[in-house]
Write a structure and sequence with these properties.
Layout (H helix, E strand, L loop, with lengths): L9 H13 L2 E6 L8 E4 L8 E7 L4 E8 L1 E2 L4 E2 L1 E6 L12 E8 L6 E9 L7 E6 L8 E6 L6 E2 L6 E3 L11 H5 L4 E6 L3 E13 L4 H16 L1
Antiparallel strand pairs: 1-15, 2-7, 3-4, 4-15, 5-6, 7-14, 8-11, 8-15, 9-10, 9-14, 12-13
Helix pairs in contact: 1-3
Length: about 230
Amino acid sequence: MMHYTRSVPATLMIAASLAVASAANIPIESFSDPVHTWNTMNDPVMGGESSSSLSLDREHGTLIFSGEVAIVPYLGVPGFILAYADDGPFPDVSSCAGLRLRIAAEEEYKGYRLSFGYRHLPGGGHAYGYKADFDAPVGVWGDVFVPFENFTASWDEASGDPIVTCGENPDFCPDEETLRDMRTISIWGEGVAGNETLYIESIGGTRCDESDKNQDLESTIMSAAAD
């Protein structure tokens, strides 16, 4: 396509370059200008003693999710805290390979999980949606990739641990309908007792297949060049 460059307006070429550069990611939330309302929920709704808080640092475009996951007395196991948004619709990420979190943690904590959607399996109790574990970089910002193949609808409502993984049974992998509109998304501290402070800059779909859109863009450029 290089031989068409001279005939293409500079503004069109710049727009094309920006579109191709950003094609691999689909934003869900950016806390520099959030579009969703975020809230917290903790295990006291189920008799636990965990606690958490949310605050938005507008100057730095960061959501701060902090709290303590405590032992649930009547169960004798760690409970949960979560930050969630359920005021969709959410963007279509069905063309993506997974989700990308731009995050940093203040301390090491091994109970971070990410969930989305409302799928509910028979006998699943309070386990709704697809859930996966992730690790957060401590003391530094990092991009954490959570593949959709790591999510499963079959997880333990008490611990958050997977019962049957997506790899073990594809029926429990995220379905296309949910990926087209998640309706809700949550970040959890669950199943591991301890304190956590997580800084979240953005959430989005990543490694998305935008080949069709790029082909349309290429056709537009070639048409402009021909004119």
